[in-house]
Amino acid sequence: MISHNTMKNQAIKLEAIYRRYQLLAGVIITLLVASHITQTAFANESGLTLPKKPSEAVILALSSDYSQNTADDFLRVFVGDVEKCCEAKNPIAGEYQVDASSIRFVPRFEFSVGQNYVVQYKDATNSNRYRLTAFTITPDKPPRLAEVVTIYPSGEILPENTLRFYIQFSVPMKPHVSADYIKLRDAEGNIDDAAFMKFKQELWSADRKRLTLLMDPGRIKRSVATNLRLGPALETGKNYTLAVDAGWPTADGTQVIGHYSKPFGVSKPLRQLPNIQDWQIVTPSVGTTEPLKITFDRPLDFHSLHKRIQVHSIANERIEGDVRVSNHETIWTFQPEHKWRDRNIRITVNTDLEDVAGNNFIEILDHTVSEAADTIAQKIPQQTLMLTLQ
After folding, report:
1. d(CA 13, CA 23)
2. Please, which residues have CB within 8 angstroms of residue 252's CB and are 6 or more apart in sequence?
3. What was the pLDDT predicted at 379?
4. Which stretch of 85-94, 319-328, 353-362 has the lowest confidence by average pLDDT?
5. Whole-angstrom distance between the N-terminal and C-terminal Cα of the chain?
6. pTM
């Protein structure tokens, strides 16, 4: 017969076993639930929405909510190709927007058209594994052909002391490689590698479509050591070609340009200050939108002409309109937005306006010491022309 103590001990053992099984069952249930939650929080490939436009987000669909702090562990976006992703690479920066059903990734800067990207996200069947999906933002229309549009100064004959050239491209170009593609050649094909200034930062416009080439002033100014040693980069009576060789890649790396060349001859240097009294002006009629036209005595700097000549009323109100520069930068045409209202107007000319040799209304770039002293007395804060319309 089983004693009372024995029965009590057996009951205690059974209770301990029951509690152990209960605890184990709880753990199993917790793991199963966690596994279900974890797996349903991961998306399969059909739950990934890729952007079609630069401003759109990458969206990963989920079935359960979780802390936003873990968003970048579930979803990352990298620049490049799948084959080279993603170890030792940093994901692109951006903002995560999380709700109960999805993660949205919005890049800090819009996605670039033509650039390859890779989305790295959690695998639905294995929480320790990531899936990789590539995408590229394709342009709405075929990309514009990459090419050199033109080179300024546009004239076929340029003065010996021409200071700068502007190369205008159709699309943004890759920087820091201009010296590999831009060459100044003489009539025999010899390249002058010392003609242009070399800067750490090339002189690009903000949209990276215009590059400014500055001739080395030491090759222009008389009696300067560089000029005495190498001579002028351009010599009167000789012919040259400014060439942009083929193969220069665009900023996004999707195209390269073809060859472009600008042949030109060289005339005597320009060593006189510009003077508005030498300009020829055709005035429009009051009550019309006829253009105002100014013809210069020399070619002026193309980009200076778009910002350093302005039209004002007698009351000093700016008259708005469009500027057109033509005839090898010797004609400036102003088309008003509205009809000419006042018979009397003012043309104001910023004294920093330069000709193609870098001479402005204050001083000559290529001057001797005595010429520099002469120009000091001629300094005028602003040039103004008073016009009476027809």
Report:
1. 15
2. 112, 113, 114, 115, 172
3. 61
4. 85-94
5. 135
6. 0.65
Residue position matching structure tokens 């514009």: 144
pLDDT of residue 19: 54
Q: Is the pLDDT assigned to residue 198 strictly greater than 80?
A: yes
* Residues sharing a CB contact under 8 Å with residue 221, sequence separation 6 or more, in sequence order: 227, 365, 366
Flag whether pLDDT at 148 surpasses 90.
Answer: yes
Residue 19 vs residues 11, 23, 34, 183, 345: alpha-carbon distances, Å: 12, 6, 22, 87, 100
76: DSSP letter:
E
Pull the structure tokens for residue 312: 């004002």
In this structure, are residues 365 and 309 in contact, taking their beta carbons and an 8 Å threshold? no
Q: Output the CA–CA distances (angstroms, integers) from residue 155 to 12, 241, 277, 356, 358, in the order listed.
A: 107, 13, 23, 10, 16
- Residue pair 122/136 in contact by the 8 Å Cβ criterion: no
Nearest-Å Rg of the Cα atoms of the chain is 36
Looking at residue 20, what is its pLDDT?
Answer: 54
Query: For residue 252, what are its two tokens?
Result: 């996004």
- What structural domains does the chain harbor? 45-136 (2.60.40), 148-267 (2.60.40.1220), 276-388 (2.60.40.1220)
Structure tokens given for 121: 């996200």
* Tokens representing residue 195 in the block: 């003609």
**pLDDT (average), residues 121-146:** 81
Under 8 Å CB-to-CB from 29, ≥6 apart: which residues? none
